[in-house]
Write a sequence for this structure.
């Protein structure tokens, strides 16, 4: 049979989790990472990253809005998906998705953004005209009190929400890792480290994503990039990436040393079918190169221009690396037989429901949402509501 | 076999009813079936399997199994003395049309029928997000096709590769142990079609079922015991190389 080497159980030849399931943890990871970056400023008082605070929140929201789409599109019966809310199966990890998602979306992210922007929304609802005015009025939710006292309350409640948001972000993405890590039938997935690896790689990718967005948008706006901010973000990214890489290497070394019955299969895959996506893309280009470059920025005094270029390169490589990691987990986990006697091939379609074009569209879609959110709720200090009102 | 006139009086109407069922194409209803009275499993006697593929064909016909997917299949193992942990396994089209003649190389060849193990602690039912797949009170693992989302999480969770997504219905599909038959007092299509009795439907709750005697007197194993799934497909004569 074409694409099959050795022996696969006959029902294993087709891969049932496609590239859409690769996107799902990737997108939720970006959400969790972006939120963690926002919490650096809000909870841990890392003032240097303040210029990215609001952008990080809006990025998290834009990606979170798209996060369920790959899952729903992948279902054989998408219209039955509400059953996960109404009749969840209490022993299923996947059944939690709806609740974790709604909790994170409504109780954490939307609430925090609303609290943070409430003053701006009220001012904009007074200064805007036409349809926009109506939208802002709806967004105030009838709460137009922006007295000093009420803003202090907003700040306090927002801090608590962010505090709750950190474990929630961990829950959101750790849970995605658990979906894979808890499958004992699949040795490529089955690992208690999986949720932890997912969380740290999520943090790295989300931080890299927001950093790149901040740099790109600032450049587009012809403003000056706050280098202190970007340096600080890069430092955190570097340290978290070290933890992430260490965990992944721990998992790898453990597998190599233990060499259980699945090892021959997994080792074969790493040397053949996953060689490019795992060894070359994920580990060499996507991890070791950015780690080395980020390390250099910590110990060598580069000029601002060089640092900017390094950060852009590292951020891009990290995003590719984490996407490759998701690919290697999801697709790699289905390429070998549970008999450990054979291997199959993933053939990605182009224009089907789970094809390449849909995947590209789903990857770009959050950026459109972000564009709309940035227009509606400008995250830039110089474009805050005060200036808007003053300009009017 | 001696049959008395009294027995004949009972058997003749029974035969007439059975013949009517055969002509009708569906067995009679069995309204007296009580799920909690049964605990179904399957005995697979490997030395008896000749790899004819009758079971695979019968299953596909009985259950309208789509091409390229299998509720049951047969594997042929070829184990050499030199590398017993790395057998050469084939299952062309699930063994539906039998197997090519084995080479006269002095190595070990044997057939292994595979199917859903109807596990007591089944990983597939554990992970289903809506409970569309479940263990019936009689121990059969079933899927409700009107409720299944088609997420394929159960396919990933099954250690034995027994599940697939039905290409037309887009829901999880698998061996039902011919539930429509066994609840009416019949055996499964695969058991019925097996010419050597290599497959036998067993009811562990029936004290008169020969399985109890068989389990006591034979060395019987399950597939992948390390998975702790409580599999109920019992294999007699299972070679250590079988995965």
């Amino acid at each position: 049979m074409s694409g099959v080497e050795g022996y696969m159980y006959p029902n294993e030849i087709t891969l049932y989790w496609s590239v859409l399931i690769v996107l799902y943890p990737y997108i939720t990871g970006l959400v969790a990472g972006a939120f963690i970056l926002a919490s650096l400023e809000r909870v841990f008082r890392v003032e240097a990253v303040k210029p990215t605070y609001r952008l990080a929140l809006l990025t998290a929201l834009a990606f979170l809005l798209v996060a369920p789409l790959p899952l729903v599109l992948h279902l054989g019966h998408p219209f039955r998906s509400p059953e996960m809310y109404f009749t969840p199966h209490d022993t299923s990890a996947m059944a939690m998705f709806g609740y974790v998602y709604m909790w994170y979306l409504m109780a954490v992210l939307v609430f925090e953004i609303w609290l943070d922007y409430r003053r701006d929304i009220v001012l904009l609802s007074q200064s805007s005209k036409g349809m926009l005015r109506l939208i802002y009025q709806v967004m105030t939710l009838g709460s137009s009190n922006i007295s000093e006292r009420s803003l202090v309350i907003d700040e306090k409640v927002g801090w608590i929400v962010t505090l709750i948001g950190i474990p929630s972000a961990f829950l959101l993405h750790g849970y995605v890792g658990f979906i894979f890590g808890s499958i004992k039938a699949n040795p490529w997935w089955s690992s208690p480290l999986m949720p932890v690896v997912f969380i740290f790689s999520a943090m790295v990718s989300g931080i890299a994503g927001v950093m790149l967005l901040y740099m790109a948008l600032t450049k587009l706006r012809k403003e000056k990039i706050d280098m202190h901010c970007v340096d600080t973000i890069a430092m955190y990214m570097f340290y978290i990436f070290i933890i992430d890489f260490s965990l992944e290497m721990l998992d790898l070394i453990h597998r190599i040393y233990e060499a259980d019955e699945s090892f021959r299969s997994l080792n074969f895959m790493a040397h053949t079918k996953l060689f490019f996506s795992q060894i070359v893309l994920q580990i060499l280009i996507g991890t070791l190169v950015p780690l080395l470059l980020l390390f250099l920025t910590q110990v060598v005094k580069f000029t601002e221009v060089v640092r900017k270029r390094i950060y852009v390169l590292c951020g891009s490589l990290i995003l590719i690396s984490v996407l490759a990691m998701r690919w290697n987990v999801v697709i790699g986990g289905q390429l070998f037989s549970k008999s450990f006697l054979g291997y199959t091939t993933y053939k990605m379609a182009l224009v089907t429901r789970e094809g390449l074009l849909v995947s590209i569209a789903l990857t770009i879609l959050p950026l459109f949402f972000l564009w709309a959110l940035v227009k509606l709720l400008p995250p830039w200090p110089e474009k805050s509501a005060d200036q808007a009102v003053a300009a009017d | 076999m001696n049959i008395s006139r009294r027995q004949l009086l009972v058997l003749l109407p029974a035969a007439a009813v059975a013949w009517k069922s055969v002509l009708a194409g569906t067995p009679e209803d069995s309204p007296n079936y009580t799920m909690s009275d049964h605990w179904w499993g399957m005995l697979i006697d490997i030395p008896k399997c000749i790899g004819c593929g009758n079971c695979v064909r019968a299953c596909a016909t009985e259950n309208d199994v789509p091409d390229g997917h299998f509720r049951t299949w047969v594997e042929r193992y070829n184990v050499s003395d030199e590398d017993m942990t790395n057998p050469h396994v084939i299952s062309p089209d699930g063994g539906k049309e039998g197997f090519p003649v084995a080479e006269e190389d002095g190595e070990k060849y044997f057939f292994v029928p595979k199917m859903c193990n109807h596990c007591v602690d089944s990983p597939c039912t554990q992970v289903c997000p809506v409970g569309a797949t479940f263990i019936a009170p009689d121990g059969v693992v079933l899927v409700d096709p009107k409720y299944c989302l088609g997420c394929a999480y159960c396919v990933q969770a099954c250690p034995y590769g027994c599940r697939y997504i039905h290409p037309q219905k887009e829901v999880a599909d698998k061996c039902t142990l011919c539930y429509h038959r066994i609840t009416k007092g019949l055996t499964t299509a695969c058991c019925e079609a097996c010419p050597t009795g290599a497959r036998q439907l067993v009811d562990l709750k029936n004290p008169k079922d020969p399985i109890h005697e068989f389990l006591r007197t034979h060395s019987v194993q399950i597939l992948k015991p390390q998975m702790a799934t409580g599999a109920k497909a019992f294999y007699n004569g299972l070679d250590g190389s079988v995965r």
Summary: The CA atoms of residues 94 and 157 of chain B lie 21 Å apart. The interface with chain A takes residues 68-70, 73, 75, 86-91, 93-94, 114, 123, 125-131, 147-153, 155-165, 169-171, 227, 243 of chain B (CB under 8 Å).
